[in-house]
């Protein structure tokens, strides 16, 4: 549509990888459950943002993605919409642990991601819980024990809860590292690596970052398999 074309003109997009699919320039193209599509249309969004248009079809092919994009480009739905589709296909028993895990640097960002997951996923009965430090563990453990499809967590708190053996990541098959550069700046690399060891190797991994320094490249090389790289804007 006209709006997605103008996005492409305003934003410099580079996608590198083998057999990269065409962007999805409409919400209808995704094949979403009707209740989720309805939420997207009700939100009043005119069209997918460039990062969404590019990353949805790649993620729907079960491929790993590393996306380098600035704040405000719509990355959250960029990974949540394929996460919903993933859940529709491979949803496990939520009592055994989450199927989707999103790591985020701060409580504030984790809460925003959860809000978006609840807003767009609730009508499809997708459940999401948020784990972050600086708050009592009790309510978070109680939410976990009820069973969840999606966990959004800061690495420190998730690691604490893993050490208490109050959550299992053995069912996770869709892993997102949001704001990876910021998580590394905050010193979360050891926790991230410990967490990822608990996630089965047979998974889809998506990494989002605003910058692309060598520390981020290194962790991407270690955790992702043949990722398609999506660059939006001049971030380097
Ligand atoms: P990022 O993580 O890239 O910083 P967010 O995912 O937080 O960006 O999205 C920024 C804002 O844009 C949010 O308020 C979100 O609801 C909104 N948004 C997401 N997708 C679209 C879209 N397709 N069209 C318009 N606004 C959108
Ligand atoms: Mg974000």
Automatic annotation (TrEMBL):
Residues 56-230 form the Helicase ATP-binding domain. Residues 1-10 have a biased composition (Polar residues). Transmembrane segments: none annotated. The chain holds residues 83 to 318 of 555 of the full protein. This is RNA helicase. A motif (Q motif) lies at residues 25-53. Residues 25-53 form the DEAD-box RNA helicase Q domain. Belongs to the DEAD box helicase family.
């Amino acid at each position: 549509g006209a709006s997605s074309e103008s996005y492409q003109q305003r934003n410099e997009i580079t996608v590198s990888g083998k057999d990269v699919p065409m962007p999805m320039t409409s919400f209808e193209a995704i094949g979403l459950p009707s209740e989720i599509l309805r939420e997207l249309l009700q939100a009043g969004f005119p069209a997918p943002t460039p990062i969404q248009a590019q990353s949805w079809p790649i993620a729907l092919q079960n491929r790993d993605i590393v996306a380098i994009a600035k704040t405000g480009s719509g990355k959250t739905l960029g990974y949540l919409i394929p996460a919903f589709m993933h859940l529709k296909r491979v949803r496990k028993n939520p009592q055994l642990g989450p199927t989707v895990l999103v790591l985020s640097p701060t409580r504030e960002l984790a809460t925003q991601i959860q809000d978006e997951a609840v807003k767009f996923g609730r009508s499809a009965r997708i459940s999401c819980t948020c784990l972050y430090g600086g708050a009592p563990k009790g309510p978070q453990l109680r939410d976990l024990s009820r069973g969840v499809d999606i966990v959004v967590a800061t690495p420190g708190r998730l690691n604490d809860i893993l050490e208490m053996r109050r959550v299992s990541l053995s069912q996770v098959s869709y892993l997102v590292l949001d704001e990876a550069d910021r998580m590394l700046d905050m010193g979360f690399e050891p926790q991230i690596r410990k967490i990822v060891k608990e996630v089965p190797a047979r998974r889809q991994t998506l990494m989002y970052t605003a910058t692309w320094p060598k520390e981020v490249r290194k962790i991407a090389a270690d955790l992702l398999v043949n990722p398609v790289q999506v660059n939006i804007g001049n971030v380097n």
